[in-house]
């Protein structure tokens, strides 16, 4: 038995011990399993494990079934969403437990006070595309940190905040160490502008300065940084500025001299 397969078997045995009533099916060699999602037992997912798992490749989500007749959902979208979640939690080590845990945050539920049953919010089952309305820059990677800019048009502060929350629905965006943002909105004679560093000191204000000197209104710009473990000093601000500017221009905002 290879080391990869030993790790896989141990992982499935651990999952079965933690969730004894949820593992519905497994092949004798554990290369395919079918399991219910904890806290969302009406959702069943079938997962296959390539030979290179967990050292080289993530598991594959083969099928997702939602056993509630009252729900309408797009099977292709749900399958794509679950695979994105799987990819986001995979870091060349066993990841099924993290996958199941992460899905608890993706599948929003609320408890029905009358019968203590769970009622699924269908808007969350088939959510908006997190990137709808957003235009992105090309990513910049430097010493294992990756930066990526996003820009969108907004007509109010409320819309700006809503668009930001929409973007954060994507699992990979949520994995970002810093989600920095700046917005400028003008409604008649009233204007709003502000920024959020999200832990990257002065990053949001620099992005707001960029938008201001470009003379642009009714915009929300976001830069996400995935930190790779190596500090890169002031170069991070260069990458933040560059990806923000690229996203702004790609979104069709023109610099006003």
Automatic annotation (TrEMBL):
Keyword ATP-binding part of the UniProt annotation: no
GO cellular component: cytoplasm
Ranges annotated as spanning the membrane: 207-228
Repressor among keywords: yes
Pfam families, per database record: Impact_N, RWD
Localization per Swiss-Prot or TrEMBL: Cytoplasm
Family matches, as Gene3D superfamilies: Impact, N-terminal domain (3.30.230.30), Ubiquitin Conjugating Enzyme (3.10.110.10)
Keywords carried by this UniProt record: Cytoplasm, Membrane, Repressor, Stress response, Translation regulation, Transmembrane, Transmembrane helix
Residues annotated as domain RWD: 10-110
A biological-process GO annotation: GCN2-mediated signaling
PROSITE patterns: RWD, UPF0029
InterPro entries associated with the record: Impact, Impact_N, Impact_N_sf, Ribosomal_Su5_D2-typ_SF, RWD_dom, UBQ-conjugating_enzyme/RWD, UPF0029_Impact_CS
Family assignment from sequence similarity: Belongs to the IMPACT family.
PANTHER family listed in its UniProt record: IMPACT-RELATED, PROTEIN IMPACT
This protein's name: RWD domain-containing protein
Species assigned in the record: Tetrapisispora phaffii (strain ATCC 24235 / CBS 4417 / NBRC 1672 / NRRL Y-8282 / UCD 70-5)
Gene: TPHA0D03850
